[in-house]
């Protein structure tokens, strides 16, 4: 399969209607998200006049209500099925964006933002669980490598992340409320499409001989005893902490080497564009060449190289060279790590618990990011190339934690 537009269309056709719908849902989810959220801080601090600390609190609460509660969405997915949880997430996101567009008081803003975040905590784990199941099914029945299916899913999400801020900028001409309502419309379209086109799960042949609470407790206990999964969570957390430096270390580096952050938007757009254009051909090459564990290790090694290069390279090309190399290597590493981890996850979890494991992966790694953000920020305050070399230890530690692959 080729990596061009024709190859993408051919791949989508080969995967069937359900998987195509899930990939398009991932695209639309990010499109609706990035129509609004990149401009939330400016709206809160500018139009609503909230203090900077309060803006930070609101943004932090949104992140917690989303990333921190992924494990809840995953557990509900196992209990009620991906379709129901995704529909509930869409409905809550529509309500949240509509509320946010009309929110003026501090408590109203906080309530709407929490609702927006919790909606994603329902929707995203359910979507990721179902696309992982479909990827395994295609691998078994159609001989399509699961990393290729998951690569298409990642590519679709990044396309939404690339287009969303551009569309959001245009919509902001009509005010922040217009962007919020447009985001709500996007999720309304997803809701209708999923309700009409996503098949309901097949009924279970026999009821489980345990109560839901007992089942949930046993699932969590099983998860906590799964050392290989927990090691993968920590390794993935090191990747997320490293990737977050696109939004923390990179702006500081551009300010240091060029005197401004003008190039930041272009750098972030380059990262998204690389995923959109390069994910499918890279996934195709990796699928038959290495195991999921090897893909994760190589990705973390490239990310380690990204930080090392940023600290070692001279500030050529107007001071942009270190930042440019950092973005390119970090993005290629991302294109290996994410599909590798997502493709590996079904092999580490009982299929009945796949939602719980999918949500726990995001929640545990989110805790790693939360705990590591303040120390990395303090490290960056020291400035200079030494901070980049020290940050290279983050993905390197993750590399050492990746468990061995088992067939």
From TrEMBL:
Family matches, as InterPro entries: MFS, MFS_dom, MFS_trans_sf, MFS_Transporters
The name on file for this protein is Membrane protein
State one Pfam family annotation.
MFS_1
Sorted alphabetically, which keywords does the UniProt record give? Cell membrane, Membrane, Transmembrane, Transmembrane helix, Transport
What would be one Gene Ontology cellular-component term for the protein? Answer: plasma membrane
Transmembrane ranges, per UniProt, are 21-41, 47-64, 85-103, 109-128, 149-168, 174-194, 229-250, 262-282, 294-313, 319-342, 354-374, 386-402
The keyword ATP-binding is assigned to this record:
no
Its placement in the membrane is given as: Multi-pass membrane protein
């Amino acid at each position: 399969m080729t990596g061009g537009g024709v190859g993408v269309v051919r791949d989508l056709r080969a995967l069937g209607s359900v998987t195509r719908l899930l990939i398009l849902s991932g695209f639309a989810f990010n499109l609706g998200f990035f129509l609004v959220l990149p401009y939330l801080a400016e709206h809160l601090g500018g139009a609503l006049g909230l203090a900077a600390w309060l803006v930070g609190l609101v943004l932090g609460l949104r992140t917690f209500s989303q990333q921190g509660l992924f494990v809840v969405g995953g557990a509900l997915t196992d209990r009620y099925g991906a379709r129901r949880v995704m529909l509930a997430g869409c409905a809550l996101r529509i309500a949240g964006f509509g509320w946010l567009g009309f929110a003026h008081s501090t408590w109203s803003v906080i309530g709407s933002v929490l609702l927006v975040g919790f909606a994603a905590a329902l929707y995203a784990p359910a979507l990721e669980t179902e696309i992982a199941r479909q990827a395994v099914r295609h691998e078994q029945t159609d001989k399509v490598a699961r990393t290729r299916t998951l690569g298409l899913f990642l590519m679709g999400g990044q396309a939404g992340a690339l287009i969303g801020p551009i569309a959001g900028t245009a919509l902001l001409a009509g005010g922040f409320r217009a962007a919020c309502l447009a985001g709500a419309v996007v999720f309304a379209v997803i809701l209708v499409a999923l309700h009409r086109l996503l098949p309901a799960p097949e009924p279970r042949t026999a009821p489980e001989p345990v109560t839901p609470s007992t089942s949930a407790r046993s699932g969590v206990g099983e998860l906590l005893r799964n050392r290989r999964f927990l090691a993968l969570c920590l390794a993935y957390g090191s990747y997320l902490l490293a990737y977050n430096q696109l939004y923390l270390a990179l702006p500081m580096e551009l300010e240091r080497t060029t005197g401004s952050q003008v190039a930041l938007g272009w750098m972030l757009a380059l990262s998204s564009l690389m995923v959109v254009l390069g994910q499918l051909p890279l996934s195709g090459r990796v699928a038959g060449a290495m195991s999921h564990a090897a893909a994760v290790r190589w990705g973390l090694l490239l990310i380690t190289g990204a930080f090392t290069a940023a600290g070692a390279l001279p500030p050529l090309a107007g001071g942009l060279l270190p930042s440019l190399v950092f973005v390119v290597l970090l993005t290629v590493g991302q294109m290996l790590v994410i599909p590798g981890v997502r493709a590996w996850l079904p092999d580490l979890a009982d299929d009945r618990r796949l939602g719980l494991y999918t949500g726990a992966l995001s929640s545990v790694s989110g805790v790693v990011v939360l705990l590591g953000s303040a120390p990395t920020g303090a490290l960056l305050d020291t400035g200079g190339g030494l901070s980049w070399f020290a940050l290279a230890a983050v993905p390197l530690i993750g590399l050492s934690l990746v468990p061995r692959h088992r067939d």
